[in-house]
């Protein structure tokens, strides 16, 4: 089975996350990637770490022989993300500090994470997936 992706924004996250969780038992690995929105004027992410990490993450997940589900959660534009009360910054499970953040989701909880400065490192992605 190829990589299955789910896309969510702040406004529809709860519904998409529920679907992701309900389908999680069908996959060997379930990951959540919190990342920046694209700038409308350039159609590129405003976050340089996301620009660097996304292709590496997608390559690793798409080349996996295991069934993998990926929930991509877009944090919003830069001013939205910079708000210290952003819902995913204060969320009791996610407590995001930066983007991108890649979280391994197992048995209803976050089992591991890679944050902004390390989310592009292939060895660390492999370690997270094979935890």
UniProtKB/TrEMBL annotation:
Keyword Ribonucleoprotein, does the record have it? no
Provide this UniProt record's keywords sorted from A to Z. Disulfide bond, Electron transport, Redox-active center, Transport
Q: State the family it belongs to.
A: Belongs to the thioredoxin family.
**Listed name of the protein:** Thioredoxin-like protein Clot
The record's section on Pfam families has: TXD17-like_Trx
Molecular function (GO) terms for this protein are: protein-disulfide reductase [NAD(P)H] activity
| InterPro entries tied to this protein | Thioredoxin-like_sf (IPR036249), TXNDC17-like (IPR045108), TXNDC17_dom (IPR010357)
Top-rank taxon of the source lineage equals Eukaryota
In what residue span(s) does the Thioredoxin domain sit?
A: 12-128
Q: Name one GO cellular component term.
A: cytosol
Q: What does this protein do?
A: Probable thiol-disulfide oxidoreductase that may participate in various redox reactions.
């Amino acid at each position: 089975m190829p990589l299955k992706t789910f896309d969510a924004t702040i406004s529809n996250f709860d519904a998409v996350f529920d679907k992701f969780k309900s389908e999680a038992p069908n996959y060997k690995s379930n990951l959540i990637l919190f990342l920046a929105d694209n700038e409308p004027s350039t159609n590129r992410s405003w976050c340089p770490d996301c620009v660097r990490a996304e292709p590496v993450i997608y390559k690793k997940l798409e080349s996996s022989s295991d069934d993998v589900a990926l929930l991509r959660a877009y944090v919003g534009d830069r001013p939205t993300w910079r708000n210290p009360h952003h819902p995913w910054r204060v969320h009791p499970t996610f407590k995001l500090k930066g983007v991108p953040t890649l979280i391994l989701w197992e048995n209803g909880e976050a089992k591991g994470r890679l944050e902004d400065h390390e989310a592009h490192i292939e060895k660390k992605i492999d370690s997270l997936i094979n935890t």
